[in-house]
Design a protein that fits this description.
180 residues; alpha/beta; 5-stranded mixed sheet; two-stranded antiparallel ribbon; globular
């Protein structure tokens, strides 16, 4: 009987320790993610002061989007995964606009190619012409390889909620929208 009590007590203690360890790991990873988002490079923090020429003319001022959840997508006309995900970004833009979400595509490409592409394949969300310097901007925002596509979700406070190198999907973006 004593052996059984010791065995049950030991099993319970082990389960409690495992539960505490799991909870601590979860808190640590959440804290690490929050710290990473809060410690953007100065160039990334300056994103909100940047402006980009728009393909149709005019200027896209990032400051005008601050305070709203924002999906920011770096793309190029020459990038097949970028082109493939654009209809889903467009759909996300339309579906989540009522909840305050804005979508911006920053074209890492030459302006003429972007204008010609958008004439054939229009989208309803805002496009900014980042030029080839957009690769460096994406790098400051965590895109270490500067590959395309690269997508980030920002909360109303301007902090990064989520980021992904590679193509996204509507289902994935919908999950991101729940984070704001």
């Amino acid at each position: 009987m004593k052996r059984r009590a010791w065995l049950l007590g030991g099993t319970g203690a082990a389960a409690a320790a495992a539960g505490l360890a799991w909870q601590r790991w979860r808190e640590d990873t959440s804290a690490a993610a929050a710290a990473a988002a809060a410690t953007l490079t100065p160039a990334a923090a300056n994103l909100w002061q940047m402006s980009f020429e728009r393909p149709e003319g005019g200027t896209l001022a990032m400051a005008s989007l601050r305070g709203q959840p924002l999906l920011l997508n770096f793309w190029g006309t020459w990038c097949p995964p970028c082109v493939k995900e654009m209809p889903e970004l467009d759909l996300f833009s339309k579906q989540f606009a009522p909840q305050g979400w804005r979508v911006v595509g920053l074209a890492v490409d030459n302006p003429k190619a972007v204008r010609e592409f958008l004439a054939r394949t229009p989208v309803s969300y805002a496009i900014g012409l980042a030029g080839f310097e957009g690769s460096e901007l994406s790098r400051t925002l965590g895109n270490e390889q500067a590959g395309l596509p690269y997508t980030l979700a920002f909360g109303r406070d301007g902090q990064v909620l989520q980021r992904k190198a590679g193509a996204t999907s509507l289902a994935e973006l919908t999950r991101w929208a729940q984070l704001r």
